[in-house]
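dude i think i finally got it to work??
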Amino acid sequence: MSEAQRALSYGAFIAPHLMVPNRGSVLAVFGSSVYLEDVSGALLCLLAPGAEPGPLHVLVSRLPYAEHGMPWDVRGHRLNVGGTVYSLRSAKPWCPQTTPLTGAPADARVLLEGAPDITAAYAHLHAVGHGRSADWRGRALPVLRQLMTSMRLGEPLPPLTNVIGLGPGLTPAADDVLGAMVIVLHRLQQRARAAAVAERVRPLLAATHPISAAHLRAACHGLGNAALHDFVNAVVSGADDWVATRDRLTALGAQSGWEMVLGATLALEVAGALQPSASP
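look at this
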């Protein structure tokens, strides 16, 4: 057994699966993260120091050597992943912070400027036509715009069956947009709208990747990574450093961060906290 390491922080959302006796196996291993699945199907994500905190995240002093299927367990304030042991005693629970909505409505187009042309954020901003049938954005964006219109008018929301799981990425890009929308609606106290979108999302979680489904499950509770929460806080408070927080967010994944910016922007627009980002 290796020398004990430390867990530095963990999402309060996963405390019921981390701070009690538990066990499971390694679901997936990536260069900068290790996903653990417990016997109930809940997921935890181990990340190295310096990563963004989040509802599923456990920041640890060093990532373990891990392989798919390797067993892990929690016993007596210790997390053991294939022989790498982490003390949980000094780990701090993480919850997102909020700031008052005090800033004047900004131009949403500014928030999306600089989005790469492969993203839905770019296509929405520039009202790009989708002549390429293989482009997932051509299927997702009309539904997302209909979703916004329905929320504004107080009408039943459109089905999201053809949106969940769409797009590139381990967390498919459309999932990133929807998750950020729900999180930001929660943040803006738009609880009825957030609940309505979550009600559409939850029955469809089996249609996407299990890791994306776990993040969407947390999003339905209003919880996302720290960079997303800090970005929204900066925008709604009129802070001058909103660009720096957006840069933190857009650094996540190949394009996940930009799709989260789009989801946040759409939610801010619906709530009247921004001027429109694109022509209907």
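The first strand starts at residue 5 and ends at 11.
im so relieved honestly
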